[in-house]
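User: Please predict the structure of the protein below. I'd like the answer in structure-token form so I can feed it into my own downstream comparison script.

Assistant: Understood. Taking the following sequence of 505 residues as input:
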Amino acid sequence: MNSAILSVKNVIKRFSGTVALKGVDMELYPNEILALVGENGAGKSTLMKILSGIYPYGSYEGELRLGDQLCRFRSPADSENAGIAMIYQELNVELDLTVGENILLGRYPRTHLGMIDWKKVHQEARAALDLLDVDIDTHVTVRNLNPSMQQLVSIARALYRRPKILILDEPTSVLTEKEANGLMDILRGLKDKGISCIYISHKLDEIFSLCDRTVVFRDGEKISEYRKADGYDSPKVIEDMIGRHLDAMYPARRAHIGEEVLRVEHFRVPHPFAYGKSIIEDVSFSLKKGEILGLSGLVGAGRSELVSAIFGALPKQAGKVYLEGKEVTINNPMEAIKLGFGFLSEDRKKNGFVWTMSIRENMTLVCLRNLVKGLFVDNKKEQELARQYFAKLQVKAPSLETQITNLSGGNQQKVILAKWLMSNIKILMLDEPTRGIDVGTKSEIYKLMQELTDMGISIILISSEMPELLAMCDRFVVLGKGVVQCEVMRKDADEVSLIRAASCT
């Protein structure tokens, strides 16, 4: 193999109370797509933040080299100027700028008078989007795009800078299957043009299809390395990632389904971005005690908007909710919580937790009123309750007082789940609960879902991963064109029939 285009030598990164990287060595070669895999918190994103200049030279030990040149990036601009472009797992766009402004951000072409050449801005932005075969109006404000389209804008911005090395951190987590396949075709084309890629993903099927070599991280260390040419051994890769044998990804579904607990009738929900239109026109469905109900449909079918409206987080235009046979009124999330609803939203960083709070404070946020003693919160009782769920869900963190922003995505999701489990819920609505989460944590969440239904809690599950839906759900309601296209029982469900129904064909 050719000399490495990028070399990482004995890199150590420390945070207060923990060592995130423990002397990592890694190489990236020309015309290569390299995968980095590992559980959340394994150190993958930390290393990428060093490569992208977010963690500047001096904040870590060890060295980086591009070819023979020693690199000491002191800012993201230094990394970008050296030919490294980073696409982050968290959407990194300016919501109130247009698509064209986002793609050329910081590199606007000028007229001979020194003014921004807006015509050329949109022409070049259009050319960058054409590389992805994406039809997005460059004049549209990014806030009006769904997360999938916002991610494609981020990718187009990176490609516009013509990098030598492209780093992608969970780039397909908010993309449809078609968009994800299109992106992988683009990356194969970039590889043929001499651009090397580092690809971070928890989707092993993507990695085995796309990547030439796979490096496994665990607990801040490089554990093993595999080459596509030698054939990938999926069970072995997973064992290296989690440090133990994984008997099965999905637990055997034990369904103890009781009487109807929830009924939604004739819901109509306004479109969040198109004034005067409804994204949900007329949807009715029921949910039984101990049941996992899958809400299936294509991106844009209104699944997230429907559950948000049921929870009172979005307004509805029409519709009724019946809880255990009685009509209830839900105008806001607080009323939903009092009735026994819990809601884990699609965007955990926007709606799932409070950035400035610790693990303990986020865990007890919903049930805090039950921890009041006199005029004040009973700190001892709060600590005991938080410690119980901290241990039960195996949250990886130095302590309960650790800021939630210092956790990996999987551990943040565990904290959010703990918040709802503390609040004596009857119905839990999960919107993409395993997005961007490693296989070990996914397995833990699936087992927890089984335990909750064993306790009689009912679950509504939204997921873009069809195997997840098929493995975990007892029944499916398929949405399309604002209405229920069909209802399918578990024994009759398969991927083809659900996708066909969602496509309204």
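That's the full token string. The chain has a mean pLDDT of 89.
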